[in-house]
Amino acid sequence: MNVPFLIAKRYFFSRKKRNIISIISNIAMIGVAVGSAALIIVLSVFNGLEDLIREIYSSFDPDLKVTAAEGKSFETDTEFMNRIRNTPGVAVVSEVIEDNALLRYNERQMVVKVKGVSENFFEQNEIGASVVEGSSDLYFNKTYRALVGRGVQYQLSIRPGNQFVPMQFLYPRNVKFNPLNPEGSFNSLNILPGGIFAIERQYDDAYVFVPLNFAEELLDYGRRRTALEIKVAEGTQIDQVKRELQQLLGEGFKVQNSDEQHTSLLRAVKVEKLFVFITFAFILGIASLNIFFSLSMLVIDKKKDIAILASMGATAKTIRNIFLLEGALVAFIGAAYGLTIGMLIGNLQQTFGLVSMGMATSVVEAYPVKMEVADFVFTGLAIIVITLLVSIRPANKAAAMSVTDNI
């Protein structure tokens, strides 16, 4: 029989008249419940935002991306490409040339990112599903077409249906600038707009997709490429293919999976989540100070009980455990209510989208939520540590109390 727990439970569930000690204990329990519920809800929102970022970029990013470790481009040839295509687990390899260029349309102009892609690019990419106007076909009727971001379309008032007004791309040539003939210092190529895509503002406001051969000629890249985008075969582990490609290509190349292509953004979300956890842990600590006060007052109120238990043979450890368990009951019951409420609110948000993001341009209407077991575990561990810290001093004070002075 666990005597300390039975006594602690009797103190907690005592039906005697309400006094200041029980009021403070209830306040502490409510504070822990509110703090733990808020912590679970906020952490779940951060998990949802992290998944949302991955979902948004999945339509733009390949499974694996090969780039130069130094510089922005690298040379390719048939043997080099065949070695990559023959790597186990590689399903599709798309060649990419990406650089900044000046885009003119009618009387307007802006700098855009030109992304030249090979014909198999859309076999591994879901951008076709993001086309809101026109077509994603870059080789319409054996003529080149461009796929334009919606933000670029708005800036330049581009009309895909107008086949008489082409877009003009300008890119500086590797020659000495001639002030008498400034246009001679630029490569200039025209292409008709074929479609408009809308993925995410970062891409919509900057990118224009063009055929690879068009980009080669405009940017003077020849056989150089800025990246190779790779689709991994179904049922193959991406990390395994990544390791094999990295070993094949050596230190002169970087092979990145989808998360590594946005390391800084995902790291920022994780860092924010960590600081939110620490902040709410401090709030839980402040709420748990009420446990310290209620235990301290309980020790004073139960001086005679402590003396009687000691005279009956209870050890200092037994008396200490009574008050440690009393604090644990207050904290754990509050945490149980809080974690349950947090889980219910998270489920309601997932199902019904109760709280809107309040932005007309947002890709989702309501805040995304994803609950993870790890968040519940770490919140529980934080409550255990905080409860022990605030309960140790009152428990030690009770254990050290003199028997003769309190009988």
UniProtKB/TrEMBL annotation:
Source taxon at top rank: Bacteria
TM spans (from-to): 20-46, 274-300, 321-345, 373-392
Signal peptide annotation: none
Residue span(s) of domain MacB-like periplasmic core: 27-248
Keyword Kinase attributed: no
Membrane topology, as annotated: Multi-pass membrane protein
Domain named ABC3 transporter permease C-terminal: residues: 278-402
Subcellular location: Cell membrane
GO cellular component, one term: plasma membrane protein complex
Biological processes, Gene Ontology terms: lipoprotein localization to outer membrane
Keywords: Cell membrane, Membrane, Transmembrane, Transmembrane helix
Cited PANTHER family: LIPOPROTEIN-RELEASING SYSTEM TRANSMEMBRANE PROTEIN LOLE
Family: Belongs to the ABC-4 integral membrane protein family. LolC/E subfamily.
Name the UniProt record assigns to this protein: ABC transporter permease
